[in-house]
């Protein structure tokens, strides 16, 4: 067996599934090209695959390194040099290579073909045609595009979970983390994963997208810096990741050089597009890319350029979507090029203009924002934040409108307090454009109202009302009046609220906006219910529900269903109420703006059926959900729920009532209840299955101690405590250490 493969100098980590797949492909196909971005580990994967193959089904493995080959005329001589043949008289060197390989079972590994695609394609075509037993394994940032080629995409290593509850047990088994630890030990032999550094290592690997070269370069800093410090410096990874080995190619010593190599191979229009796309943080779709990239500088259709960038491993299509993303290191390199080209403001102006056009609906139809617009804003929320920051730095008056759109996205993710903070900051600026300021005031008032800050909400609605009178925007007037009505209802001014909501409905019908009409009908139904007019309330919400369903917006449907459920509950129809609340949870159960009402409604229904413990736990789950975002219940509804829970407590012993009232459903239990209406009781049998050490850990956890404090108390290592906690979660069917602590408190484990 002949081979010129270099002997490995360090361990090969992970990629077992990829190796198996490549081996299977080499059995069936004669040309496999490993395609991937800079630093993905294509070369090392190809060498490992070739090393394993040469032990069996081939006579010779030939590595041809093309990274330092600069022109097409040198490709065939590079193959000849690797093969160990020289020119014979007048015979061309290519003919000599072909004659040598003609009757040989050989695997030719062509490494780094991206800058020599045409000559490499010609070479491979020649070998496959003239040498029937030869197979080729190529590595490139772009496919060779010849007949018979199978492209195998090499991504980064799977990144570890950074979830606080899982990281200490999951991260040590993750291949990206294993690679970091292995390479760190080369520089610092006593380096180990510890409870203090595991989360930082996991976050570092995740921020580097699992890219092996980046991870290896980051690990070289371990002798100088704690992992947490390395992670903190990842905002500028191209500066940090530069400590390569002297004997390696310059492109492997620095992440910037590795990426720059790809950039220099691009056509001018591809370089231009890649620079412009660097303004997108977190992915983008074709429409967004078109807005940012379409100028006289880039004559090619944007989709065509995106396709070429994806083929060159500089863009990644996000699976299951029509969206793209750049690896973070590639995006930051492209941003450097954008700055160097003096195009930053031009690119961000295009981005801000696109977001402004999307957000204009907050002025023209604020109660009828289409689902498609919401989805686009949510999909590009990270880039929207970048546009907001750019507008703030420039003192651009569009900041108020863009911040309102960002606040909506933020609130939809359950971060209402953060949405309010964004709006407060924007409203402090002395911008004078009335419609933009009015939108921001109206949003800020609404968020203040849902968090129970009545005085602030009233002040903001007052300013918005004064400002909107000067504007010719009927839909915006309606929206401001709707917010005022909500504030009035929360403070008990029911007649005034009903009057404003009736006027809003009239305007919505005049404007011919079905979704605004549905919103106004649901609002009117709630006010009518407070006034004791249940029949009128039911009539209004029944009209609204089909319109909400047609909108395709889960939050709107959930709002109507919750209102329907409360009305049915007040009318004594428990079956219809239960159906409405359950459907609300299935449609939008994770939304803290609608989920709590539905859970509390089901708690009241459970109480009506004599299930006091279930009622208290469902109410506790809704209460916990509200607490995560600081959203308060409608006073009328809060009074109904509180009264029902007081009744539930009288049906249980004090100990049972307290345990249930402070034991919300776990995520697993909540999911089972929402999806299948299954009630998963925590069994007493699980308590009997605990050994003495587990009981002591649960007891200490219930007192609020950390893993480290528990380890010190029991004379154990922190890793042992974390491992035992993981087994406890599995044994008890709980998903977090907080759930274990709550269970221990409930059972009075001691």
Written description of the protein model:
- By secondary structure, the protein is mainly α.
- The protein is 63% helix and 5% strand.
- It has 41 helices and 9 strands.
- The strands form 2 sheets. The chain has a 6-stranded parallel sheet, with helices on both faces. A 3-stranded antiparallel sheet has the order 7-9-8.
- A hairpin with a 5-residue loop joins strand 8 and strand 9 (323-325).
- The protein starts with a strand and ends with a helix.
- The model has no long low-confidence stretch (mean pLDDT 89).
Beta-strand percentage range: 5-15%
Distance between the termini: 67 Å
Order of the strands making up the biggest sheet: 1-3-4-5-2-6
Number of DSSP E strands: 9
Give a brief outline of the structure.
The chain has 750 residues and is mainly alpha-helical. The protein is built from 41 helices and 9 strands.
Secondary structure: elements and pairs:
Layout: E1 2-3, H1 16-28, E2 31-35, H2 42-53, E3 60-65, H3 75-83, H4 93-101, E4 106-111, H5 117-130, E5 134-140, E6 149-153, H6 167-170, H7 175-187, H8 198-207, H9 212-219, H10 227-232, H11 237-240, H12 250-253, H13 255-264, H14 268-277, E7 284-285, H15 286-293, H16 302-311, E8 316-317, E9 323-325, H17 328-340, H18 344-359, H19 361-364, H20 371-379, H21 381-394, H22 399-412, H23 416-427, H24 434-450, H25 454-468, H26 474-490, H27 494-511, H28 514-530, H29 534-551, H30 554-570, H31 574-588, H32 595-608, H33 612-629, H34 635-650, H35 654-661, H36 667-676, H37 685-688, H38 692-702, H39 707-714, H40 718-732, H41 737-747
Parallel strand pairs: 1-3, 2-5, 2-6, 3-4, 4-5
Antiparallel strand pairs: 7-9, 8-9
Helix pairs in contact: 1-2, 3-4, 7-9, 13-17, 14-16, 14-17, 15-18, 18-21, 18-22, 21-22, 22-23, 22-24, 23-24, 24-25, 24-26, 25-26, 26-27, 27-28, 28-29, 28-30, 29-30, 30-31, 30-32, 31-32, 32-33, 32-34, 33-34, 33-35, 38-41, 39-40
């Amino acid at each position: 067996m002949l081979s010129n493969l270099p002997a490995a100098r360090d361990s090969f980590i992970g990629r077992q599934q990829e190796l198996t797949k490549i081996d299977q492909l080499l059995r069936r196909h004669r040309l496999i090209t490993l395609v991937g971005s800079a630093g993905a580990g294509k070369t090392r994967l190809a060498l490992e695959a070739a090393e394993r193959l040469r032990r069996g089904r081939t006579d010779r493995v030939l590595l041809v390194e093309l990274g330092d080959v600069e022109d097409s005329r040198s490709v065939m001589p590079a193959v000849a040099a690797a093969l160990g043949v020289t020119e014979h008289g007048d015979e061309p060197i290519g003919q000599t290579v072909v004659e040598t390989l003609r009757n040989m079972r050989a695997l030719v590994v062509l490494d780094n073909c991206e800058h020599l695609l045409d000559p490499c394609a010609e070479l491979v075509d020649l070998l496959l045609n003239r040498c029937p037993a030869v197979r080729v394994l190529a590595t490139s940032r772009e496919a060779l595009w010849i007949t018979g080629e199978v492209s195998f995409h090499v991504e980064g290593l799977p990144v570890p979970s950074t979830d606080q509850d899982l990281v200490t047990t999951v991260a040590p088994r993750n291949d990206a983390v294993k690679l970091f630890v292995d390479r760190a030990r080369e520089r610092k032999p006593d380096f180990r994963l510890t409870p203090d550094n595991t989360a930082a290592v996991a976050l570092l690997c995740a921020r580097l997208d699992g890219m092996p070269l980046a991870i290896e370069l980051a690990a070289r800093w371990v002798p100088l810096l704690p992992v947490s410090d390395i992670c903190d410096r990842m905002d500028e990874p191209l500066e940090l990741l530069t400590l390569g080995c002297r004997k390696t190619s310059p492109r492997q010593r620095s992440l910037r050089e590795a990426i720059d190599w790809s950039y220099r191979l691009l056509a001018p229009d591809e370089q231009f597009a890649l620079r412009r796309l660097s303004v997108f943080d977190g992915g983008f779709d074709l429409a967004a890319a078109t807005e940012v990239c379409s100028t006289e500088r880039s004559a090619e259709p944007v989709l065509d350029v995106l396709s070429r960038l994806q083929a060159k491993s500089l863009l990644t299509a996000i699976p299951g979507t029509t969206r793209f993303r750049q690896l973070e290191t590639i995006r930051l390199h492209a941003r450097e090029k954008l700055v160097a080209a003096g195009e930053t403001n031009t690119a961000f102006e295009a981005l801000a203009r696109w977001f402004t056009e999307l957000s204009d609906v907050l002025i023209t139809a604020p109660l009828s924002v289409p689902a498609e617009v919401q989805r686009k804003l949510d999909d590009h929320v990270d880039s929207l934040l970048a546009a907001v920051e750019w507008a703030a730095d420039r003192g651009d008056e569009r900041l108020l409108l863009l911040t309102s759109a960002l606040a909506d996205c933020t609130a939809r993710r359950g971060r209402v307090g953060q949405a309010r903070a964004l709006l407060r900051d924007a409203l402090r600026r002395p911008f004078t454009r009335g419609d933009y300021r009015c939108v921001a005031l109206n949003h800020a008032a609404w968020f203040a109202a849902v968090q129970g800050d009545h005085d602030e909400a009233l002040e903001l609605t007052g300013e918005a009302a004064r400002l909107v009178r000067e504007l010719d925007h009927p839909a915006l007037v309606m929206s401001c009046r709707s917010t005022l009505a909500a504030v009035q209802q929360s403070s008990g001014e029911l007649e005034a609220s009903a009057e404003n909501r009736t006027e809003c409905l009239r305007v919505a019908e005049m404007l011919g906006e079905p979704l605004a009409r549905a919103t106004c009908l649901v609002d009117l139904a709630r006010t009518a219910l407070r006034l004791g007019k249940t029949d009128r309330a039911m009539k209004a919400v029944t009209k609204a529900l089909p319109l909400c369903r047609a909108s395709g917006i889960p939050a709107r449907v959930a709002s109507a269903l919750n209102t329907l459920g409360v009305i049915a509950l007040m009318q004594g129809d428990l079956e219809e109420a239960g159906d409405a609340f359950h459907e609300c949870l299935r449609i939008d159960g994770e939304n803290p703006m609608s989920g709590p009402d539905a859970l509390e409604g089901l708690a009241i229904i459970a109480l009506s059926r004599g299930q006091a413990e279930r009622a208290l736990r469902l109410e506790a789950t809704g209460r916990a959900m509200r607490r995560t975002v600081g959203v308060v219940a409608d006073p009328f509804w809060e009074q109904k729920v509180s009264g029902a829970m007081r009744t539930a407590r009288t049906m249980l012993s004090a100990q049972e009532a307290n345990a249930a009232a402070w034991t919300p459903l776990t995520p697993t239990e909540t999911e089972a209840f929402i999806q299948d209406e299954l009630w998963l009781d925590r069994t007493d049998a699980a308590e009997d299955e605990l050994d003495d050490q587990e009981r002591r850990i649960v007891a200490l956890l219930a007192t609020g101690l950390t893993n480290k404090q528990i380890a010190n108390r029991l004379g154990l290592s922190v890793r042992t405590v974390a491992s035992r906690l993981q087994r406890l979660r599995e044994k008890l069917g709980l998903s977090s250490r907080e759930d274990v602590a709550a269970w221990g408190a409930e059972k009075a484990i001691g």
